[in-house]
């Protein structure tokens, strides 16, 4: 556990930095993950996450992929889960297909075992724990899956750590 010592008015105060996830979320890597209990179509998966104060997960790096895999393994999840990505067709050349995240139009990594470009196969992206956590195209409207929701891991600084384990956190414990 990291800590710093501050001197103020001649008193010594310890401030500890501790990772924090909201209730029902689990910490893995730099993220707090939650798997929705309710299955839904891909088009509404992100709305289900937003209702919990989170967003659908976008895999930006291999460490993100590993964190998602670790979380799904810890949850013993064996069914596919929605990610927040799409496979889209070019308006100019129907044979051109692109993969993108909602917030990143130029993904740095791809983890499709094979990207099936056949039309009608769906445009939403899901992660499949039964196939070594590769990504697969799924029909956004017809397929019902759980959503992988995420919030960035927060770090709070705590003061006065005595009895922290015996009592719930209070607003006065946090240092901004």
* Poorly predicted parts: 1-14, 160-168, 171-176
Question: Number of helical runs?
Answer: 2
Largest sheet: 8 strands, mixed
Radius of gyration from the CA trace?
20 Å
Distance between the termini: 18 Å
> How would you classify the helix and strand content by structural class?
mainly beta
Oligomer description: single chain
Percent strand: 35-45%
> How many DSSP E strands?
12
Envelope shape: globular
Report the order of strands and helices: EEEEHEHEEEEEEE
Bin the helical content: 10-25%
The residue-averaged pLDDT reads 77
Q: Brief overview, please?
A:
This protein is mostly beta strands.
Describe this structure in words.
- This protein has 176 residues and is mainly β.
- The chain has helices spanning 42-50, 62-74; strands at residues 2-8, 11-20, 26-28, 31-35, 55-56, 81-89, 97-101, 124-128, 134-138, 146-152, 154-159, 174-175.
- The strands form 2 sheets. Strands 3, 4, 5, 6, 7, 8, 9 and 10 form an 8-stranded mixed sheet that branches. A 4-stranded antiparallel sheet has the order 1-2-11-12, with no helix packed on it.
- A hairpin with a 2-residue loop joins strand 3 and strand 4.
- The chain is globular.
- It starts with a strand and ends with a strand.
- The model is unreliable at 1-14, 160-168 and 171-176 (pLDDT under 50).
């Amino acid at each position: 556990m990291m800590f710093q010592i501050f001197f103020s008015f001649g008193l010594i105060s310890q401030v500890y930095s501790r990772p924090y996830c909201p209730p029902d979320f689990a910490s893995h890597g730099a993220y707090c993950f939650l798997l929705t209990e309710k299955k839904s179509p891909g088009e509404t998966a992100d709305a289900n996450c937003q209702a919990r104060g989170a967003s659908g997960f976008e895999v930006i790096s291999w460490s993100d992929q590993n964190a998602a895999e670790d979380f799904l393994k810890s949850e013993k999840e064996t069914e596919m889960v929605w990610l927040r990505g799409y496979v889209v067709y070019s308006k100019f050349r129907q044979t051109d297909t692109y993969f993108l995240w909602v917030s990143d139009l130029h993904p740095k990594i791809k983890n499709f075992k094979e990207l099936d470009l056949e039309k009608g196969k769906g445009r939403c992206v899901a992660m499949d724990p039964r196939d070594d956590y590769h990504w697969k195209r799924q029909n956004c409207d017809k397929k019902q899956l759980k959503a992988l929701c995420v919030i960035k891991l927060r770090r709070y600084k705590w003061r006065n750590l005595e009895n922290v384990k015996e009592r719930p956190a209070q607003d006065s414990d946090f240092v901004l």
